[in-house]
């Protein structure tokens, strides 16, 4: 059993009351892309602090790399359980009517041993062998899409490239009807929208969309119940102990797999296009040295950090780097801040494609809950960069991006671009 870190000299915790700059749950700071100096100030002055009275109730900010690693290394003390609050900052005691509160267990929001057992069912879909098996098809689809892009007109990179490639991948993972694959994008956007919990009308609309997703997948499930085992995710679930899931657990795991397989890779692809445009010297370095692509994938994941946070809840009174945290407290791990931690990364706000040890970022989390699909996300990004390099394609941002206005999914709604050859 995990134990708390050895007691140290108590540190006085900085407590702030919302509205306050350090209430980094506010969606506008991400929509306006001005979160960087706020987290920088917290890391310098109080990397662990507490916010009182936010829209998502009270919570602890954990903003430094080492503190987040310490929390993630103690999953029995810092719980992910949906019964205690789950994995996002959403306030489980909000004012929504009980009948529209989403209570859908998923394995990422479970503790051991349930988490281990359900993750074990999904993990074989993302082994190195599976990545090798899928790589030829991913490369082919990526190449076909790139060959279809216009060079003489502006278009939206998010919709045309990022969404299309990741939605195609999701459809293949689920063996989902190809003609309906864009439903996966819509459902993913709704499932990952934590701001819906702040508005009853929007929460009702969100619940309706998620039940629509569940009904569609339940139909696919029923069609495949008596079929032989296949490599798609639904088949893996059917031919395992997950076959006996109740309806809400089924919905929860669908939400996890759809958001995890769509939003993260999609926003990394968009972040790559935007980020290299912001650092033309690094872009030129990559164009001249395509052997940098594997490290570039890791650096772009660090710089973008497609999921800004995860939440844990304390199961006992504990101490985190001198801060006394009582049982039952909401602890928010800001991966987006840890990946800009000056103690870990030189010039952390810059993209440096030949950075030493590029893979030590926390974009996929750390510890037992590290993203099960990380290899697939890395593969899709690597093949996109390789196929672009083979065609000498350069992406030029032509206008301001429209960003996701929330503190969970960190990404782009629209990104106007043109293409050129180098």
List the defining traits of the structure above.
422 residues; alpha+beta; Cytochrome p450; 3-stranded antiparallel beta sheet; 44% helix; globular
Please provide a written account of the structure.
The structure is a single chain. With 422 residues, this protein is of the alpha+beta class. The protein has a single domain (14-421), classed as Orthogonal Bundle (Cytochrome p450), CATH 1.10.630. 44% of the residues lie in helices and 13% in strands. It has helices at 28-31, 36-45, 65-72, 114-122, 128-148, 157-174, 182-191, 200-224, 233-238, 247-278, 280-288, 293-304, 335-338, 374-391, and strands spanning 14-17, 48-54, 57-62, 78-79, 155-156, 309-314, 318-320, 323-325, 330-334, 393-397, 402-403, 412-414, 416-421. The strands form 4 sheets. It has a 6-stranded mixed β-sheet. Strands 5-13-10 form a 3-stranded antiparallel β-sheet. It has a two-stranded antiparallel sheet with strand order 7-8. A hairpin with an 8-residue loop joins strand 11 (402-403) and strand 12 (412-414). Residues 1-6 have low confidence and may be disordered.
């Amino acid at each position: 059993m995990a134990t708390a870190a050895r007691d140290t000299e108590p540190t006085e915790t900085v407590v702030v009351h919302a509205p306050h700059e350090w209430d980094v749950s506010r969606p506008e700071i991400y929509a306006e892309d001005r979160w960087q100096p706020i987290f920088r100030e917290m890391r310098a002055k109080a990397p662990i602090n507490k916010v009182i009275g936010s829209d998502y109730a009270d919570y602890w900010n954990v903003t430094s790399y080492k503190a987040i690693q310490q929390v993630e290394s103690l999953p029995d003390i810092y719980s992910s359980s949906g019964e205690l609050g789950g994995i996002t900052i959403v306030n489980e005691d909000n004012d929504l009517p009980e009948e529209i509160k989403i209570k859908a267990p998923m394995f990422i929001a479970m503790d051991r041993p349930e988490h281990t057992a359900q993750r074990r069912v999904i993990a074989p879909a993302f082994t190195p062998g599976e990545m090798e098996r899928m790589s030829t098809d991913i490369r082919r689809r990526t190449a076909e899409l790139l060959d279809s892009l216009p060079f003489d007109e502006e278009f939206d990179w998010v919709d045309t490239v990022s969404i299309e490639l990741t939605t195609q991948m999701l459809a293949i993972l689920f063996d989902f009807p190809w003609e309906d694959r864009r439903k996966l994008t819509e459902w993913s956007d709704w499932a990952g929208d934590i701001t819906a919990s702040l508005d009853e009308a929007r929460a009702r609309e969100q619940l309706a969309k998620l039940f629509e997703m569940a009904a569609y997948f339940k139909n696919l499930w029923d069609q495949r119940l008596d079929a032989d085992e296949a490599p798609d995710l639904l088949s893996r679930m059917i031919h395992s102990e997950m076959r006996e899931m109740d309806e809400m657990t089924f919905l929860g795991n669908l939400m996890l797999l759809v958001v995890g397989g769509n939003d993260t890779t999609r926003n990394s692809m968009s972040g790559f296009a935007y980020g290299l445009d912001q650092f033309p010297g690094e872009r030129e370095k990559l164009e001249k040295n395509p052997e940098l692509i594997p490290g570039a994938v890791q650096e772009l994941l660090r710089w973008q950090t497609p999921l800004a946070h995860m939440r844990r809840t304390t199961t006992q009174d504990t101490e985190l780097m001198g801060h006394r945290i009582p049982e039952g407290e909401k602890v928010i791990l800001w991966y987006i801040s840890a990946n800009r931690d000056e103690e870990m990364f030189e010039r952390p706000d810059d993209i440096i494609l030949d950075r030493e040890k590029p893979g030590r970022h926390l974009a996929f989390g750390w510890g037992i809950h590290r993203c099960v699909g990380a290899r697939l996300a890395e593969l899709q990004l690597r093949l996109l960069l390789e196929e672009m390099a083979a065609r000498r394609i350069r992406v030029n941002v032509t206008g301001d991006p429209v960003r996701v206005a929330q503190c969970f999914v960190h990404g782009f709604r629209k990104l106007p671009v043109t293409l050129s050859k180098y």
